[in-house]
Amino acid sequence: DKMQSGQYSVHQLLDEALAMTKDRIFLKNIAVRKDYTTLDCKIWVNKLKIKIALTNIIINAIEAMPPVKGKLKLITRSINGNCVIEIQDNGVGISKANLKNIFTPYFTDKPAGMGLGLSTTIDILNSNHVKTEVGSKEGKGTRFILTFEKTQQSGECL
Questions:
Q1: CA triplet 4, 2, 18: central angle to 5 degrees?
Q2: How far apart are CA 93 and CA 14, in angstroms?
Q3: pLDDT > 90: percent of the chain
Q4: For residue 120, what are the CA distances in angstroms to 84, 137, 145?
Q5: For residues 9 and 116, is the Cβ–Cβ distance under 8 A?
Q6: For an engineered disulfide with 83, which of 41, 60, 128, 139 has Cβ 3.0 to 4.6 Å away?
Q7: Distance CA 54, CA 72 (A)
Q8: What are residue 20's phi and psi, to 5 degrees?
Q9: Signed CA dihedral, 90, 94, 99, 103: sign only
Q10: Digit-coded pLDDT (tens) for 54-86
Q11: Which has the closest alpha carbon to 153: 42, 61, 29, 50?
Q12: Cα 48 to Cα 5: distance, rounded to the nearest angstrom
């Protein structure tokens, strides 16, 4: 799998994930706000898989949002030399009880959902050395915070 890994721009990865979801964003009339750092971070990841993970998180955000006035916010920052991506929505939010289950396979609180999206996503993020935090308030929205080790070359010296 190492062959698939390389150094990629965080902004490019996010933009590509957004492009994958642009129909859904358009259909639901969601306002997207990008708050990118001026300096683009380069991260060492498996591009295809990270794009799937980012796309899954964005789709989950879209599905959680109301039919009107949906807002998706994408933020990138550099903290202590690590690259941080924040994906925020103003959707229904996740209850405290459900929050600890969202990465469990087959867990879903969507009536028709299979619940595989986020458990696959966390596997991808973990295998790419991404630290994931999720904060949510019911009725207010959810935010995913992904911390990438900037110079980490996945798989070296293992």
A1: 35
A2: 22
A3: 56
A4: 20, 23, 17
A5: no
A6: 41
A7: 13
A8: -65, -20
A9: negative
A10: 999 999 999 999 888 999 999 999 888 889 999
A11: 42
A12: 9
pTM of the predicted protein model: 0.86
Q: Quick one: DSSP state of residue 108? A: -
Q: Which two tokens stand for residue 9?
A: 């721009």
Residue whose token pair is 């009880």: 97
Q: Which two tokens stand for residue 62?
A: 């879209």
| 3-class DSSP assignment, residue 72 | strand
Length of the chain: 158
Beta bridge partners of 73: 33, 88
Token pair in block for residue 158:
């293992």
Helix (H, G, I), strand (E, B) or coil at 68: coil
69: which residues sit within 8 A by CB, 6+ positions away? 31, 90
